[in-house]
Write a structure and sequence with these properties.
With 184 residues, the chain is of the alpha+beta class. It has a single domain (3-180), classed as Glutaredoxin (3-Layer(aba) Sandwich). 27% of the residues lie in helices and 23% in strands. The protein has helices at residues 31-34, 50-67, 89-99, 112-116, 154-164; strands at residues 3-5, 19-22, 28-30, 39-44, 71-77, 105-107, 121-122, 124-128, 134-138, 177-180. The chain has a 7-stranded mixed beta sheet with strand order 3-2-6-5-4-8-9. The chain has a 3-stranded antiparallel beta sheet with strand order 1-10-7, with helices on one face. A hairpin with a 5-residue loop joins β2 and β3. The longest helix has 18 residues, at 50-67. The chain is globular.
């Protein structure tokens, strides 16, 4: 597994719209339908990446907490399932049900959404405000598999809390790191 760092993306850009299939119920869902009243967190994840597996419990916890405050979470997998069949939509659904994801788990089959967001790795985190303007693109926290640091979600939590409390954009944003997206 090669460690990949998230790409830089200019803060303030508007989230590119999309419509993707939700693997949980096979419905087509758009960003405009899924966005949160106060903010939206988009996370590029996949089933097999050890970096995602490492933070899955915290993602469920955070989403459950912040969705009550008007911040919706949207998970997207863009991996090539021909080369990585463990990331296939039916297995995405199984995983989401097993982990009780409180958010949709969308499949980006043609990888257009990942490209539009300049996503590079899994996990890759984006926080948008109430008008879908990017206010954070970075890591969940400093924890990585086998580095001994606890998973707290500190960086992402701080970003969302700042958004909810109108404190402005975090000045220091560290890129996310993980498995590279598996491009076709």
């Amino acid at each position: 597994m090669a460690l990949t760092v998230s790409n830089e993306l200019a803060l303030g850009i508007i989230a590119p719209n999309f419509t993707l299939r939700n693997t949980l119920d096979d419905q087509l869902l758009s960003l405009s339908e899924l966005r949160g009243e106060k903010g939206t967190v988009i996370l590029f994840i996949c089933n097999h990446c050890p970096f995602v597996i490492h933070v899955n419990d915290e993602l469920v916890k955070m989403a459950s907490q912040y969705q009550k405050k008007g911040v919706n979470f949207i998970a997207i997998s863009s991996n090539d399932v021909e080369k990585y069949p463990q990331d296939a939509p039916h297995l995405m659904k199984e995983l989401a049900e097993d982990l009780k994801y409180p958010f949709p788990y969308l499949y980006d089959e043609d990888q257009t959404v990942a490209k539009n967001y300049a996503a590079a790795c899994t996990p890759d985190f984006y926080v948008f405000d109430e008008v879908l303007q990017l206010v954070y693109h970075g890591q969940l926290d400093d924890s990585r598999p086998q580095n001994g640091k606890p998973v707290t979600g500190k960086d992402l939590r701080n970003s969302i809390d700042n958004l909810l409390e109108n404190k402005g954009v975090l000045k220091k944003q560290h890129p996310s790191m993980g498995c590279g997206i598996k491009w076709k």
